[in-house]
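ping. complex inputs:
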Amino acid sequence: MSDTAVKNGFFSREMLHNGKMELLKQKKSLIVLTVLHMAGVPMVLCIAMVRCWLGMDYDEVEAYAFIGAISTIVALLSGMFCAINSMPYLFKRTEVDTRLSLPMSAPQRFVSDLLAGLCHYMAPFTLSMLVSWAIVLLGHITCDGRVIYREGWTETIHIFVEVAPYLARAMLVVYVMMLLYYMLTVLVMSCCGSLLETIVYTLLLNCLIPGAAAVITGALTSEVRGLVWDHYLQFVLPFTSPLGALIYTVPLLEDEPAFIGLGLWIVITVAVALIFGLIAFLAYRRRKAEDTGKPIVFELFYHVIMTLSLVTLIFLFLMMDDDLFVPAIIVTALFYFVTSVIKNRGFKNFGKSVGRYLITSVSCFVMIFVIHATESFGAASRVPSANSVSCAYISYTGKGGYDECGFGGMFYSEPLSNITCIKDRDDIELLTELHREMADRNYIYGRDTDHGEVHNFRILYKMKSGNWILREYRMTERLYSRLAVLDAKPDMRMANVTRAKEFLKDMRRNAQKGSGQSCYLVEKWVHYETYNNGDPEGVYKASIDSLPRDFADKLVKHYENDIMNMTDEQYLNENVKTYRLVTSLWSDGIQISEYCTETLTYLESLGIRRPDNVVHERQLE
Amino acid sequence: MFGDMAALNGVDLTIGEGTAYGLLGSNGAGKSTILRLLCGVYEPDQGDVLIDGVSVFDNPEVKQRVFFINDETVQFGQFTLKGLKDYYKGFYPKFSDEVFDGLAKTVALPLDKKLDTFSKGMKRQAVVITGLAAGTDYLLLDEAFDGLDPTMRIIVRRMLVDAMMDRKLTTVISSHNLNEINEVCDSVALIHQGKIVFARDLDSVKGNVHKVQAAFTEEISLESFDSERLLHHDRNGSVHYFIVKGTEDEIRDMFADKPTAFLDVIPMTLEEIFIYEMEGLGYDSSGLKSTAGVQDKGVRA
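pong. complex structure:
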């Protein structure tokens, strides 16, 4: 052994040198990526700050944000090329001898090249983030109430203070997505020997993994009563590919993440990325120098791609319509035939290809049959016991609520805190009983089989085990009316207070100083169109700008006192005169009955009095 | 194995320290594959490649003692000569700036220009001086003299010889240019279709095959010659031309019982030996593969 040999275990000076040289080779690309990233978040923040300083309209920053988003997306998509450039010897024969004869073991070379490529990909983004943080910090430090924040109607909104947490979450999400995308590319690279195949299969896998996951989930949930496709997708798609992650992580950037918390998403996605990396490493170790130039190094990889393609196509066809059985066979057979001929450069092993096609397609059809026959392995008829439920979120909002609005998007845009949460044991029992009845009576979503007015009803159980169960049914009026016992329950009342709080928060965010917006009380049943074209007559408006800073807090407090202190009879009294607090732009509002004395008194003190000359819509009817 | 084809089969070579070893063979014989096995680029499917008793594949410590120069230079296009030095310096701890700078000066290559702007021969010089400066114990060269002009060939050859003399550098050279092998190497191996035809020191190779010109007082039958040793026969009038394996004495013994009018035994060049050996293996020098088997030995009376 040479006396100069490196003996520091796995990590060696040569690895570091190799990584450094690889990065230096990518100097030009690093500069381009840095410019693209700088034209993203830092540019937008910078422009926002300058415009604030100059007192210009903040909304026009959106135009720059669009440019920034395009620029950042282009930079992020370059991850594939960063990975490819880090291991050119996997595709270029001319590089094989030079790189593989260097004094590094295969694992050392893999780790060094992988990290160099990752640095090449992530360093420009990291730099842009450092600059962004500097801008945010500068904005925060120099925030003196005049220049770099805007004022809302109730309080000063510190743009940069609000941006910081959002930026932190976005940064984490982007890092994780970059890692996932990069590792997926490295995995494909390790299994392919030509550049064309690497690019094509990377793009394909980015679509096929979430695609197959989506259609299989679709097959498990569609046409089976109660199961909601969207609900299951969100547990699968965010982890399968950057594309899936992109769709489902945007809500995670909000203050209150809905279902899968940001932390959990990061942990699982990083784990998936590391699994991709591990498989890539195993493939890398197994492949030989002489494999460079081959389109596909490992047959298994090709078959995985083909199987995913077939599964996606077959499930997709049958999800659309059961009658598409024959077209599904024709299209997939043609697809398999063409790809086999291309891959084998002719009709070599054609018999084997036919056999594989038959096995895969028959397996898919059998699987679909089993899913249908067993109603998604019994999931459709599964009703949790009340004792195992921690709380239940329901779309029913009871008296004074917002009916069923908003619940459909609860997983992606609406925080769970906005949705009625039932915690009372007896009430949960009632819900599980109703659930059992609906499951047994075979109400198929979208195909109600009972007569009478139907309502969409969603119920989301948070189990004590930490699991979530979501079901959606069409409910008859008779069953729906059984929910009325919940109306006056504290959980239901509190849900209304919470919604009022959210409404005020939204109003505060969206109302701008000097916009001339006002808020006022209208009669509850006044139709939206009555005042959508302008503030209605006979109302007593208060300018939003003139309201005190603690308006929202005080109003919510009074409202909570009123709602929680009402008797059941008062709360459920439908004949009592009820108003709605709205703004010029927001037609939804807080419902305030005559029993809300504290609230009405407080509003009156601010000039927001009960409206005159109101016509009760129901009276008109 | 390349797919279902064995590139090399049963190759057993021992290369001594400080020697210059030449690999000869037809196109696709497996010369480059041997070099790639020696530097650890390829992993043998069977057997092992050992350097000083230690397996070379995936062994950084051993690979640090081997420098491989392949027949391509395009991969270095984006490097300047200085950049090339910096690149390899980090991998080979014995890399000598002094040697590099000295050799670069000798071949008068610009240090700050990208290799892309160099001619093929200049690129080759750049890589060779890098290999020599790396300070490794073993230097493997695939088509080392390809693209070099005659003057530069002499300079590069001298550099190699100096390094071998100065620090017992072991060099393995694969080349189609048999003159270069003849000039530089001590030993050679002839490879054909993935197998070693022979592996000997150059003197014994050259001393073991001779051209014979002879005239006979009466007609002779080729059957009376040892077919294993007779590589080629031709005739022009009464003069017979033979290519025969063996030393001069052995050949004279071989012809002793023949009715010779005169007999000249002439040493052969390496190129002639290569051509006749390959012809003997059915690889015709005219480029057309002989349909005759080994039994014919190219005898065309």
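Chain A has a mean pLDDT of 80.
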